[in-house]
Backbone:
């Protein structure tokens, strides 16, 4: 099958980043997303029938693909078979869930993700697969105290300041996961470098802060693995892309979609703030959304815990992205700031979604900093954007210059602007159809008939599942 040389070959083209294929697409096309892995090598020893249970005599026949005969009483299965099992389980449970929650079923399915903190985690290369079949277990339930989680690394799907994000696949459970992998310093000089040490400490602090978070609108952290070469952080896999990426390619959103997304973001923010956590880098690029419109707050690299979330903490340094920063973050006069800074950033995200471009779109970073810090100005609503009275009022609440005048997350969540008609559905919007096309075409070589067919099949399946018969 022809490929577009994976995401690695597209590092210079930002428009190709951050669109993650649907889980079903990954499971059906393992060769595409895990090109360096022998998917048919036996991995698991299948259970041997108990001696007291006679098996019916059958004529010998060929084994299914991926299942290899090892003896008269034992056989083993491959990663491909693990993936097929996972796909069948999703098909059995998933459609009922999706229907029950009006299109937000992917979130409920993700609650089945295996929490890995405390387990032994090991990346497995293709060369190692044949050597682990006697020790690997399919489930932590087999022996929770001695569970070893094996995973394989696939395509590169994203990049960050300190590392890259890959598609991962659990050899144990068949789950698709996202793996944020950071290269650790090798030389003593690098290990002593203050920036490098700070980076590693920051990542470990992030993991410690977020390992117990569990909310539908927060990307789920599953666990970590540290080797001499890498620090790997395991995350819930969210098919789709970031709201920021979609804004840049699609353009402005319709108001009902903005209401739908904003309510979910506030749900996530309210949860974080209730636990004393400031995000400190809220922007559309850090909000992931899947094909059903489920939004999840991600990237907690600058997050911090506070004992009094809505009171100024003088230990808060300037963190975040300039165009989304609140005035008190840039110019705090050693007074610090509170979680109200996240509320300001939410207002900036609203401008992104209404305008189809970032806040302060006509300004460079240094100019925006001056207008925020010295002139105490809010980002202007572009002249080509017309807000409804309720939208304008909501935005003004978020962008109050005095942080004390901004509502808290739980107060904003009850704002009249966010109310939607009971008959409204994300699956009826232009944006939903646009995201389907992005998902279907992600990583597809236009000159490759097999990949084009894969994309067309995926688009048809999504369209059918969003409009079930009867």
Residues:
């Amino acid at each position: 099958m022809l490929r577009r040389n994976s995401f690695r070959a597209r590092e210079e083209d930002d428009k190709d980043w951050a669109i993650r294929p649907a889980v079903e697409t990954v499971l059906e096309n393992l060769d595409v997303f895990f090109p360096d892995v022998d998917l048919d090598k036996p991995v698991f020893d299948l259970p041997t029938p108990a001696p007291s249970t006679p098996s019916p005599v059958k004529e010998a026949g060929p084994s299914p693909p991926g299942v290899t005969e090892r003896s008269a009483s034992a056989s083993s299965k491959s990663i491909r078979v693990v993936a097929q099992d996972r796909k069948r389980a999703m098909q059995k449970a998933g459609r009922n869930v999706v229907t029950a929650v009006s299109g937000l079923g992917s979130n409920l399915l993700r609650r089945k993700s295996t929490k890995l903190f405390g387990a032994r985690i090991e990346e497995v290369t293709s060369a190692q697969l044949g050597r682990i079949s006697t020790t690997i277990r399919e489930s932590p339930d087999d022996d929770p105290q001695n569970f070893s989680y094996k995973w394989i690394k696939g395509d590169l799907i994203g990049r960050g300041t300190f590392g890259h994000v890959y598609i991962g696949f659990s050899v144990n459970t068949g789950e698709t996961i996202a793996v944020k992998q950071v290269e650790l310093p090798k030389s003593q000089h690098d290990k002593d470098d203050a920036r490098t040490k700070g980076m590693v400490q920051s990542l470990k602090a992030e993991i410690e802060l977020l390992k117990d978070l569990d909310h539908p609108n927060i990307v789920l952290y599953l666990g970590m693995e540290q080797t001499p070469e890498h620090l790997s952080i395991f995350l819930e896999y969210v098919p789709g892309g970031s709201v920021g990426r979609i804004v840049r390619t699609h353009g402005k959103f319709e108001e009902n979609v903005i209401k739908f997304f904003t309510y979910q973001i506030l749900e996530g923010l309210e949860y974080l703030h209730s636990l004393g956590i400031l995000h400190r880098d809220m922007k559309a690029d850090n909000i992931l959304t899947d094909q059903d419109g489920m939004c999840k707050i991600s990237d907690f690299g600058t997050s911090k815990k506070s004992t009094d979330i809505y009171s100024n903490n003088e230990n808060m340094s300037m963190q975040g992205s300039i165009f989304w920063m609140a005035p008190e973050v840039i110019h705090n006069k050693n007074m610090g700031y509170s979680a109200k800074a996240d509320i300001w950033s939410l207002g900036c995200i609203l401008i992104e979604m209404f305008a189809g471009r970032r806040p302060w779109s006509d300004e460079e970073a240094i100019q925006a900093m001056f207008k925020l810090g010295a002139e105490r100005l809010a980002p202007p609503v572009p002249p080509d954007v017309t807000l409804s009275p309720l939208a304008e009022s909501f935005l003004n609440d978020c962008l109050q210059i005095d942080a004390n005048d901004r509502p808290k997350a739980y107060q904003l969540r009850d704002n009249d602007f966010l109310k939607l008609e009971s008959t409204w559905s994300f699956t009826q919007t232009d944006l939903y159809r646009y995201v389907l096309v992005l998902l279907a075409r992600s990583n597809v070589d236009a000159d490759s008939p097999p990949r084009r067919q894969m994309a067309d099949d995926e688009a048809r399946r999504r369209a059918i599942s969003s409009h079930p018969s009867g």
Remarks:
- The mean pLDDT is 76.
- The longest helix spans residues 79-100.
